[in-house]
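Morning, I've got a small favour to ask if you have a moment. You're getting the sequence in one-letter code plus the fold written as tokens. Thanks so much in advance, here it is:

===
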Amino acid sequence: MNCFQLIKTVLDEAYADIPGDQNSKDAAIKEQMDALSKGYAKLRQEGCLDYSDPARRFAYLFTYTTSHANLVYDRIHASPELRTALAASALTVSCIGGGPGSDFLGILKYCQMSVLSPVLTCHLLDRDPAWGESWSDVGNKVKVNGALQLTTHFNPFDVTDPTKWKVFKKHFQADVFTLIYFMSEVYALREKAKEYFDALFSGVKPGALLLFLDNNNPDFYNWFDGFVTKHGLKVIESNSGQMQLPYDEEKLDLEPYKSRLGRSPKISADVAWRVVQKV
């Protein structure tokens, strides 16, 4: 099952949560697709978007999640250190801001394509608890060689509010951390988020890897790089560029939504990425 096929099963469930008949659902989704595009253009100034509307969550899953998952897959495939980490018999991953699922879907695709079957625990940490419904049963939907043991833990989590994020300490002990299009979401609130990121970068265990992938904007990656330097993490890879959705992901798997909405998922991105390690 490729990323589009898995997303299709989640989209079917998300679509059922949108109120109204088919025409009103589709109209609401298209409205939210446009709203997301406008909102992302203002991230630097306004920050976090609200995903509580089920039509907006559907719009995000359809447009962005598959593309971002493939970006994660590509970065893992290109990194010897991340490949070694995922070759372990057991692995814990903390997906910071990972409610939409891009992070762990990219990891699952890598396991599938590389014929790996680890005991995989994913902590999904996100402000919007509604994302937890999308991925609570993903372990039953995805089988890698029939042997993958996947457990997901969703934690309602706000990096700008210490009374909320300090409750969840176990995620600091992960082997791999992902920050996928997340620091751009909270950049406008960076003064409030600073305490969390200081705790994260200082608190991860030696040997742990962090994968950062975000818009290719110096405001966002320089902010990440500042924490790396401040807390003495080792930079393994630092790069940027245009990336394309692979041909093996067939957009027809998203029917009937693709035809009815007259829209396509995001197929390319100008991104910056880092792979860093706690030493």
In short: The mean pLDDT is 89. The beta strands are 90-96, 119-126, 149-156, 176-180, 209-215, 234-244, 268-277. Residues 245 and 267 are 5 Å apart (CA to CA). The longest helix spans residues 54-78.
